[in-house]
Amino acid sequence: MGSDDIATPGSELPRLRAMLEALGRLSRSSRGQGADVRASFREITAVAASTLDVARVGIWLFDDAERSTLRCVCLFDRSSGTHTDDLVITRDDHRVYFEALDSDRIIDAHDARSDPRTAALRESYLDALGVGALLDAPVVGGVGSVGVVCHEHVGPARTWTAEEQFFAGSIGDMVGLAIESARRREAETMLRERETELRLALGAARIAIWRWWPARDALDVSDSFGALIARPRGWAPASLDELLRAIDPGERDAVRAAFDASRTKGVDLRVECRARTPHGGTVWLELRGDHDLTGTGRDHSMRGVALAVTDRKQLEQRLAHGQRMEAVGRLAGGIAHDFNNALMTIAGQIELLDGSFTSEWQRARAADIERAVFQAGHMTRQLLAFARREPTEARVIDASARVRELAPMLELLVGARVRIRLEARRALPVSIVPVHFDQLVVNLVANARDALGDGGTLEVATSNDTLDQSRAAALGLPPGRYARVTVEGVAGTAIAPGVLEAMLGSEGAVATIAEDGRLSAYFAIDESGGDAAHSG
Questions:
Q1: pLDDT tens, 215-250?
Q2: Distance CA 177, CA 72 (A)
Q3: Residues 382, 177: Cα–Cα separation, whole Å
Q4: Rounded distance, CA 440 to CA 392, Å?
Q5: Where are the beta strands (DSSP E) in 236-372?
Q6: End-to-end distance of the chain based on CA atoms, in angstroms?
Q7: Distance separating alpha carbons of residues 505 and 21, to the nearest angstrom
Q8: H-run or E-run covering 221
Q9: Angle of helix 162-205 versus helix 37-52 axis, rounded to 10
């Protein structure tokens, strides 16, 4: 296939444009798909297969909360132009591959048969279909990963470029947003149906009946009226004034005005108000009424019903909030995708120009741009997390596992002049917003790279450290056990003192420069006893 050839800078530019155009078409098309998530899946897989020049693209979703089974819900075969589904693979049969998926990061298996993450698929899947390379991107929705988009290259091994990996990640994000959009529409439909059912039930039940004689301000209510506002059964206000005393003070004038307008102008009464319960709570009432046309003078009266509408009001508020948040989420998701497209272009251009730099100053400025692109990528993921309603609260992660997962990104960040060596084996549970942890580690490595000057080797290590009173005070932290992430130069490439930032900011992490040029960040050990979650 053409994608297996070694690409030249001139041939990469059309591919970049094709990727951007494909993402733009999918973004525009998704706005018109409505709740038909299967139609969205079919279009996304077809466009992805054509753009990446692969034989098949499949969307696989987890069947259960334990993520023990992956079911293919849409598999596009490019040679036949057909879509199929209902293929299944299980964690028990492919444990290493599922553990790689647990990281919620892209699996770039250039040689799928030998890559340890995908080799277990060889007998059951790869050999039978002639798959030589896999590019799998996570599908994130709700509170975490819900599946994977698998791009299958038939033929020999294939090297996936950074641009292709960016594109695959964007395809995974589009699948996640399509799923979340369909779920929100289903929830909206259920809320509307619930509201309709509630209105019909309350209207038909006539939970409480009342009759009011305006001329003598006499009020008669059924025995069930008191239960509407948490009063004892049989509680009965004898006048409208007595009823108004149970209404929220801020709404009494509006309720009185509605009764007066109905009495003097002959219009039907329909007013909603909040009533106070004896224990300080609030309930919503809807009062409906009309005139008794047979009465005159002191016998002239109004009659109607009182409905408890607290559930309905809460549904309306949730629906209105959901609509506002969906609009904001769509906006955030659109901005993030557009920004991500721009980042792809910038990253691609820097990669194409890398061999043309002639001075250290140019290489340093290019490194600054790469760092900015990497950090901007974190911002797009935060926007997409908001669009998908992902939680941004702290959770327990394994600091060592998270650093290992960041290794490929760190290697891209430091460039060819600097080697990354990892020493991160021991499990160290810490409670932190995962993306904040990533940013702190990236800052450490980026600053250390800048301090090395002409290049060298950086060792990124994690360790368990206990801070006594004096050391903790010097760092501005409370005494206790901490996970320590350190970055230092090795083999004659020590970091120059005074170059690195002394503070990295949030999450209780403090960076310091020791006399030997080591830069460290400290994170409080989580003592809850729970296992550290994988870092997705």
A1: 888 888 887 777 787 777 778 889 998 889 888 888
A2: 18
A3: 14
A4: 16
A5: 269-276, 282-292, 301-308
A6: 33
A7: 39
A8: strand 218-221
A9: 180
What Å distances lie between residue 145 and 138, 170, 335, 398, CA to CA?
6, 14, 22, 18
CA distance 443 to 120: 36
CA distance 287 to 274: 11
| Six token digits for residue 72 | 């293919």
Helix and strand element counts for the chain (H, E): 13, 19
- The vertex-208 CA angle with 202 and 209, nearest 5°, equals 115
The tens digit of pLDDT for each residue in 312-355 reads 776 776 565 455 545 555 665 666 666 766 777 777 777 667 66
Hey, what are 529's tokens? 């006893």
Instruction: Give mean pLDDT, residues 307-314.
Output: 77
Who contacts 411 (Cβ-Cβ below 8 Å, separation ≥6)?
Answer: 420
Identity of the residue numbered 90 = T
Measure Cα distances from 318 to 283, 325, 341 in Å: 16, 10, 34
Residue 430: how many CA atoms within 13 Å on its side-chain side? 32
59 phi/psi in degrees, rounded to 5: -105, 120
Two tokens, residue 30: 């998704």
Total number of residues shown for the chain: 536
| Rounded Cα gap, residues 305 and 204, in angstroms | 10
Decide if 208 contacts 305 (C-beta within 8 A).
Answer: yes
C-alpha–C-alpha distance, residues 175 and 170, integer Å: 9
Tell me the C-alpha distance between 471 and 487, whole Å.
Answer: 19
Whose structure tokens read 């899946």? 41
> Cα-Cα-Cα-Cα dihedral of 317, 322, 328, 332, to 10°?
150
Which conformational region is residue 65 in: left (phi greater than 0), alpha (psi within -120 to 50 degrees), or beta?
Answer: alpha
Amino acid identity of 134? L
The pLDDT confidence band at residue 52, using thresholds 50, 70 and 90, is very high
Rounded CA separation 523/480 (Å): 10
Angle between helix 360-387 and 434-452 (nearest 10):
180
Token reading at 141: 């929705």
